[in-house]
Design a protein that fits this description.
The chain is mainly α. It contains ten helices and two strands; from the N terminus they run αααββααααααα. Strands 1-2 form a two-stranded antiparallel ribbon. Helix 2 crosses helix 3, helix 2 packs across helix 4 and helix 7 (133-147) packs antiparallel against helix 8.
Length: 208
């Protein structure tokens, strides 16, 4: 199997999971539970069919990929976590893993994108090609999280394995770690956590 076929096949995974999550969310809003293996299998079957439907000569999944050529492994893992939790009631990523993931995505985006646009004397994106400090830092963080038994460490392991297997269209390690959508979701989650924490603190102060 050629590398191009592998890359194209993997690009169907995120749109497939995103479609499943979207339908699950709609079902919840309609007051219907998306839980259970039978609904999950049925929904997965029809989602797989939907993303392969040709639109304008391209499968629907490839149109989604055209919006963002490289959906990062952490973003894919978070969507998979939500789909799995909706279907089974169990979490692939616990609260600690998600919190570390949001921090990782937020800091990574703040470090990478402004500097990559020229806001500074150094372009960190260049560190994603070949062996560099990015590899050393990412390996160190991965080992640290695994020792701490934080599940986001497993996500980073998959990032590195996916990079070695060339599963994304990009050959830059940064694109396996973060993408604009993951950064946006991470920053939104961090802001939401900050607001909730502030509200709880304010409520405690009012009661005291």
């Amino acid at each position: 199997m050629s590398e191009e076929i592998i890359i194209t096949g993997f690009s169907f995974l995120f749109p497939f999971l995103l479609l499943m999550l979207t339908v699950q969310s709609v079902l919840r809003r309609l007051g219907k539970s998306p839980g259970g293996w039978r609904p999950a299998v049925i929904l997965g079957f029809f989602s797989a069919l939907a993303v392969t439907v040709p639109v304008g000569g391209l499968p629907l999944a490839r149109w989604v990929a055209s919006l963002n050529a490289n959906f990062s492994i952490p973003l894919t893992a978070v969507v998979l976590h939500r789909v799995w939790k909706n279907a089974s009631g169990t979490a692939l990523l616990d609260g600690n893993a998600l919190r570390v993931g949001w921090i990782f995505g937020g800091i990574g985006g703040v470090v990478l994108y402004p500097m990559a646009l020229g806001l500074g004397p150094f372009d960190p994106y260049s560190q994603g090609w070949g062996f560099s400090s990015l590899f050393v830092v990412s390996m160190g963080l991965t080992v640290f999280l695994l020792v701490k038994k934080n599940r986001f460490g497993v996500v980073l392991v998959f990032c590195i394995l996916s990079y070695n297997l060339h599963l994304l269209e990009s050959s830059n390690l940064w694109d396996y770690f973060i993408d604009p959508f993951f950064v946006s979701v991470s920053l939104a989650a961090l802001v939401r956590r900050f607001v909730k924490s502030k509200n709880r603190r304010d409520n405690r102060m009012e009661k005291s």
